[in-house]
Write a structure and sequence with these properties.
The chain is 27% helix and 22% strand. It has 334 residues and is α/β, with parallel strands linked by helices. The protein is elongated and about 70 Å long.
């Protein structure tokens, strides 16, 4: 059983890992803390590191590079949210050993079958004491769910997202944005965390969405996917053919050849309902405003009652004036 101090530091690296989600390319977002216990039983943080934008350097390297010289002693401890990588050439596990650190706490094992367990094995061979956290602190699968899904299931994590009015309509004949400005910010944060954004052809032609992440101080070029029932090509879009009259198999084959770890499907409602009926999703995000829409077509209606009856509601909370609902695929829940 880990002491409360070690549990708190592991919880801290798990929380820090969230910061760079969506910015680390093909690598997971990992955090690292280096703590000195020589002067205080509670430990003093000497350095920290996060996985760099675009994936390199890794968190451990960044933490070691920021560490003042001659600060490592026999009571210096490293906490990492994910097992350090191990390769024959340069790697994090070797960098940790070369730095002289003798004790490492790890929140989670790497799900990558080419790496899993190898980093820990190497560290132990170097007489470094390694402790893998208890299951309650093994948060990697939740924090880096996109990376985890891609590594274990060989496909992207699929999120279906839609915004609807209080009475269930996704489109107004007179108003462009049916959710609040705060919720628009939330949606851009969702775009930031995903590798690609997808919409149906009708949405592209009717609404001309920019499909960009418009957050101050953030630069991320997000690939765009278009679903079309015609085999045509559109500049700056990856086109995927979908026959909306036939349901796809539930094996995610449409997405398996894509190199994305996560895809955010933003609609419109025909595309949303299509992938919903095909059971091709991991998560559903519904942003429901307090607006009542009148004179909208029935084809833009989405039944929240049906969603609640057929899918597992994971959470719901107020976001500004709106309510954010998160559903998960019952077939894929742990």
């Amino acid at each position: 059983m880990l002491s409360a101090i070690h549990q708190n530091y592991l919880q801290s690296v798990n929380n820090l890992s969230i910061k760079n989600i969506g910015l680390t390319g093909k690598n997971p977002s990992v955090a690292c803390l280096i703590v000195d216990y020589s002067k205080s039983p509670k430990g003093i943080v000497l350095s920290y590191g996060l996985t760099s934008k675009n994936g390199r350097p890794h968190a451990e390297i960044n933490a070691l590079n920021k560490l003042p010289q001659n600060k490592i002693n026999n009571k210096t401890v490293m906490y990492i949210s994910l097992e350090p990588c191990f390769k024959n050439n340069s790697c994090c596990a070797k960098a940790i050993a070369n730095a002289g650190i003798k004790k490492v706490f790890i929140s989670s094992l790497d799900p990558n079958p080419n790496i899993k367990g190898k980093g820990i094995k190497f560290l132990k061979q170097q007489n470094i004491k390694v402790t893998h956290s208890s299951k309650s602190l093994d948060k990697f699968q939740k924090i880096n769910k996109y990376f985890y899904t891609h590594q274990t299931l060989n496909r992207p994590f699929i999120t279906l997202k839609i915004a609807i009015s209080k009475n269930g309509f996704s489109k107004s004949p007179t108003i462009k944005n049916i959710t609040s400005e705060q919720t628009q910010y939330f949606m851009h944060r969702m775009r930031l965390s995903h590798d690609a954004i997808a919409v149906g052809m009708n949405t592209l032609l009717d609404d001309r969405p920019k499909l960009t992440c418009r957050l101050q101080g953030v630069e991320k070029n997000i690939p765009k996917i278009i679903f079309s029932n015609k085999k045509n090509k559109i500049k700056n879009y990856l086109s995927l053919y979908v026959d909306y009259k036939k349901l796809l198999n539930e094996d995610f084959s449409l997405f398996r050849n894509l190199q994305f770890q996560s895809i955010l499907i933003e609609g419109g409602i025909r595309t949303f309902k299509y992938f919903l009926n095909c059971n091709l999703f991991d998560e559903i995000i519904v942003c429901q405003s307090n607006m009542i829409i009148k004179n909208s077509s029935k084809k833009y209606f989405l039944s929240m009652k049906s969603l609640k009856n057929n899918f597992k509601l994971k959470s719901s909370y107020q976001y500004g004036q709106d309510t954010i609902y998160k559903f998960v695929n019952k077939c894929l829940v742990e």
